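agent: user wants the structure for Peptidase M14 domain-containing protein from Danaus plexippus plexippus. delegating to structure tool.
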Amino acid sequence: MHGDESVGRELVIYLAQYLLLNYGTDDRITKLVNTTDIHLMPSLNPDGFEASKEGECESPNDYRGRSNAKGVDLNRDFPDQFDKIKVNVEEYFFGGRQPETIALMKWVMSKQFTLSGNLHGGAVVASYPYDDLGNGKDCCEESRTPDNELFRHLAGSFASRHEDMRRGDACKPETFKNGLTNGAFWYSVQGGMQDFNYLHSNCFEVTFELSCCKYPRAVELPNYWRMNKESLISFIEESHNGVHGFVVDEDGNPIPNAEVYVNGNSHSIVTTEHGAYWRLLLPGGYNITVIAKGFYPSPYVSVVSPSSVNVTLHRRPRNLRDDFTHHNYTAMEQFLKDLSETYPELTRLYSIGKSVEGRELYVLEVTKDPGSHLPGKPEFKYVANMHGNEVVGREMLLLLAKYLLNQYTKGDVRVQTILNTTRIHLMPSMNPDGYEHAHPKDYNSIEGRSNAHDVDLNRNFPDQFGKTQDNELQEPETLAVMNWTSSIPFVLSANLHGGALVANYPYDGNPQMKSGWKNPSPDDDVFVHLAHVYSEAHHKMHLAQPCRHSNERFQDGIVNGAEWYVLAGGMQDWNYLHTNDMELTLELGCFKFPPASDLPTYWEDNREALLQFIEEVHKGVHGFIHSHIGHYLADATVSVGGIHHAVKSAQFGDYWRLLRPGTYNITASKQGYESVTELVTVPPTGSISLNFTLMPDDPQHWSSAYDFRVLDNIINTRYHTPLEMYAALAELENEHPAVAEFRAGDNELTSSLHQLKVTHDEGSPEETKFHIALISDLYGSQPVGQEMLLNFARHMCTAYQIGEPRHRNLLKKTVLHFIPNLDPLYSKMLRTYDHTEKCDLQLLEEEFGDSLYNYLTKKNLNPLTNYTREKAFVDLLESEQYDLILDLASGTEDVTIPNISKEIYEKYAQIYQDNRTPSRKYQCKENSVVQENLLDLIFKRYDVPIVSMGLSCCKMPLESDIGWVWRNNLKGIMKVVEQANTGIRGFIRNTEGAPMRSAVISVVSGASSRQYRVSQNQAHYRALLPPGDYRIIVRCHGYKDQMLTWRVVQGQLKQKDIIMQRLNSESLPGGQFEEVKFEKDPDTVYITGLTLTSSSVPLAHTTLSAWPLPKESRHPLWSNTSDSLGRFVVSLPVTYMGREVMISANNDGYVTTNRHVKISSSDNLTPNIILKLEKDDNVLGMPRLVFIMVAGVVGVSLVTLGAWCLSCRSRSRDARREYMFAPLPDDDKRPLCENGAYDVIRRPYYDEEELPPSDTDSEDDIVLLRTDRDWKNNDEQT
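agent: tool returned. relaying C-alpha cells verbatim.
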C-alpha cells in the first residue's frame, strides 16, 4: 500500500507459492485452501514501488515511493467515519479519490470479505481499528470499535506467533505490549483502509507492520519469511471462528443484504447475494437476529461460536409498495382526500390554516367515530415536515395513515384497539411551501428548510427564556399550530424531522443558551422513557451509529435537546410549557431528502416505533373530575407532588397525566372548589384510572384547617394602602407583644422603611438566630406580594399565640423581618385603582427595583431624586446581615434566584414549587433579566441572597382572588421559611476559647460557593443550607485553615463549634523534642513543658519561677532555667497536687509572661505546659511606640528652637543694616573707599541741581551703602 514498504509484497508472493506447493501434501494447507476463499494482492501501489530504492529503510522527505504516482498517501485516502459529508453518498465515496483507492473500495464492497490483513513496514507491531480519533488529538487515546476484544484477539493471533513482534521492542525506542496496539493510540490516521473495511463492509481488517526497515536488502527476505510464515497462516485460519450460515425466506430462497446483529453489539454484517453470512466472534455464547427489507425481523437465536446457523425470515405484506414515492403538495392533497373518501367512518380531513403561499395545512384525523373529542379518549398527534427539506416524516405519516386504515379493516386487533381508544391526528406537512423549494437527494443542505418568509419554524414559537429575532413575530404556520394545539387536549405528540437519527426530548433551551448543557424538564423521567420507547422500537436508532457527516453518537439513540445543541423558540418546549401535550422531536434519518427507493427501508425501520409511541398515550394516570352533584369540571388543575408541571381537565372533566410506574400524591383543584389529594400507585403495566369528586369551596373550613382561622386572610380581601399596611402590622405588635415588634422611626434604619419583627422572646439576644426577611413591592406593579406578606405575618403570630409547636419551634431559631411598601409608586398606583385585574400592569415611572439597580450601578441616575429609600434599603442589608430574603413577587409563578451559589438556592426554589398549588388562570410572562441582575448584584456586593418567589401570573389579580393566591402559596412560603430548621450553626473560637471575630466560612456545593462571616460579639456563624453534602473551608488570619465536610439533613439544625489553631502552634523548628529526663520523687509533683518565642522557636536559658496562689509571698516556691531546647521542669511539694500555681517565665529581651497552671490531682506529673514569650520592645524603659512618640516630640522641639535662634540672629543683622548709614559731608569729595582690597563701586557725586536725576536717583541725598563684604568684615572685627 506504501510503495517503499516492500516486505509484505514479497511475503504475499512467498505465501502464494507455499500454499500451492503444499496443497495436497500438507493436510493443514489442503484444508485451509479447500475451505477458504483466499485473495492475495502483492501490491496496491505498484507505481510507488517502482519509485523506491532497495536498502532505503526510511521514506525520503518528499515521500517519493511511499505515495502513489500522484503523491497521495493511499492510507489517508479512504472515506473516514469523522468526515463531514457535503454531497450525495456516491460522490462522497468515490469523488476525487485515487484510482487505487476506488478500485480497492469497489472490490471490498462487492466481495464481502470476512477477514483481511494489511501488510506494512517501518515497525514491528499488530495495529487494530479504529485508526482515527476524530477529536483533533494525534495519539495516545484509544478509539475502540464495538468488536474491540475480537480485534485484539485477531491481532494477537499474528503477533503471538512472531518471535520479534510478540516481544514488542523490535524497533526501539518504540515499545508495544505483546506487540499489539490500537491504531489511534499509536497515532491517529484519518482515511485509513482498515477503518473503512470495518465500517462499510463485512471485513475485519488488521494492519501488520513487519519490519523496522521499510525496504531491506533482498538477502534478508528468507529470514522475514521464516518469522512470518506461521503468523500469516494462523491469521487466515481465524476467518473460520464465529458464526456462519445462510439467511433464506419461507421458500428457501436466499435473502441478500440482510443485516445480521449480535445482541449487545451495534456492528452488523450483511448477507451476500447468495444469502450467506460470516460473523467473526470470540468463542462463547451469543444471541443473533437478522433484519431484512420486506421481512419480519427474526427472533433472537442463541448460538455458540464457532458454529453454523441458518435463519429463515418471514415476508411482510407489501400492500404499501405503490406508495413508496415522494408526494409533492398536489399529490399529498389527493392522497389524503382519497383516504378520507375511502374510509369516512374512520377519518376526517381538515385544515388548521394556510401557509404563507396559501397552501392548506392539512390534518388527517384517524380514529373510530372521528369528528370531535369523546369523553375519556386521549388525543394524540404527529407533525412532520416542519422543515420543508426534511421529508422522511412526511412520507412516513402518509404511509402510517394508510397502514392504520388498511389494518383496521382487515381485523388487526392491535390497530383496532389503537383506533378505538385513541384519537390520532396526522399532519404530514407543517411547511408545504418549504417542501416545494427542496430537491431530492439533498443530504444535509438548508434549501427549503424555512418557510416562504425564510423563517425557521422550529425557532418561531414563544420561548420560556424570552424573545429572539426569530420568534418576535409568529408566522402563519406557527400560529395555526399554536391555536390547533390549544383547542384540543392533546396528551402526547411527536415532531418528525431528518438529518440525524435520534429521539430528542425537552428542554431544547437553557438559561445560558449554551449547547452541551443539559436542561431537563420536571418530567425528565417520563420524557427519557418516551424517547427510549421510540429508539428501542426503531430498527437502527438505538444502535447509536453516527451519521456519515458527523461524529455525533447518542447513547441509546436519545438525547436532551439542550445537551445536543441549544435552540430558542422550539415547538416541543412550547407544547410542554403551555399545553397538556408532552412532545418529542424525532430525527428519522441522516438523509434529509433521500431517494424514493430508500423509503421502504425507512418505513420498515419506523413502523413499529410509530405504533408503540402512540400506545404510550395511555400510560400514567387518567380519569374524570366531577363536582359533588356529578357535573363535569373542565379546566380543573391536576398536579403531582414533587413535579412542577400541571395539566388541565378537558371539556368533559377528563384528564390524562403521563407518569412512570411509582407512587404519587395527585391533587385535583379548581377555583371555587375544595382541592382533593389522593395517593395513587401507577403499576408496572403503566396505567391506572383515578376519578375525583370536588366539593364546593368553604373558605372558613380551609382557614380552620390550614391558617388557624385567620379569616382576614381570605374573606373580604383587598389591597391595603401603605398607611393601612403599617397600621395592620402595628396592631400585630399590640396583639402579640411577646413575639412581635413593629419598628417605625425608632432609628435611622426604620425611619424610611418600617418593619415588623417576629421572633420568640422578643427583645432577647438574636445573635444565634437566623434572620429571614420577607419583602414586598420591590416593584410597585406587583402589589399582591404586599398582601401575602401581611397574611403570613398574621399566620405566624396567631400560630405562636395558640402554641402551635411547629411554628413556635421555628421562631425560637429564627427572626422574621416583614418589610412592606418598598416602592412608593404603589401608593400612587392604588389611588387610581379601579378594582379590576391588572395582570400586565406597567408603571410609567421608574419602579423601586429598577431605581435600586441604577443606584447600585451608578447608571442612569435620576438627578431629581436623592435615593433616600434606596440608601435605607442598602443600610438594612449591611446592618441586619440577613441570612435569606424572600421577595414576594407576582407576574410569574417562577422563582428567580441569584446565579451565584445557584446550586444552593435552586433547591429552595424547588422546595417552594413542590409545595405550592400552581394556578393556570393567567398566562405567565418571562422573567425580567433586570431583576435577575439586581439579585446577583446584591448577593455579590452585600452577601445577602434574595429569592424572588412568583405568587401569581397576574401582577395585580382581582381583590376577590387575593384569598386564592394566599391559599395557593401559603404552604410553599412556609416550607421555605422552615428551612431555618435545616442547616449548621456554631461558634468559632481558638484553643484558648477566645472568639475568632474575623473568621470567614466558605461553603462549597458543587460549582457553587458562599461565604459566611461570624458575629462580632461571640463569633457565632449561621449557615442556612438545604439538605446535601458540603465542603467547608474556615479561615482566620494567623490561624490554620480548616477543611471540613458537612452533611446537612432535612429538618436538622446541627451545632458545629469550630476550634482554630494558631499557625505554627503544633510544629516547632527541629521537630519533636523528647521529654526532659529526671528522677521522680513520690513526694514531689512535677510540671514539664517548653518555653518558646511568639513564633514557636524554642527559647533557651529562660528563668522560670513557681508562685503560690494567691500570691502572698515575695519569694517563689521554686526557680529554675530552661535547657538549650527550651525544656523545663518545675518541682513542687506533693501537697500542691490538685492545686493551682502561677508559673512565671523571664528572659532578657522578652516580656515576662505568667500562666496559671492546674496541677494534676491524679498524677504527680503535669506535662506539656507551653509558655510563649513576646519580644521586649521597650526602649529606655518605655514601650517602643511611646519612645518613638517622645523622641519625635523632643526632636521637633529642638528643631523648632534652632530655627527660632537663627531667625533672631537674622533679624538682628537686618536691623543693623537699616540704621548704619553714613551721610557724606557736603565738602567731602573723596572716594568712599581707599582700600583697594574692597570691591568698591565708584561714582562721582554732583551737587548741581540743574542736572536731572538718573533712573536710580532720588530727590533725597544720595548715599553709598556698604557691600555685603563690608558688613561681613565688620562683623568679624566686632
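agent: one observation worth passing along. Residues 1067-1071, 1245-1251, 1254-1269 have pLDDT under 50 and may be disordered.
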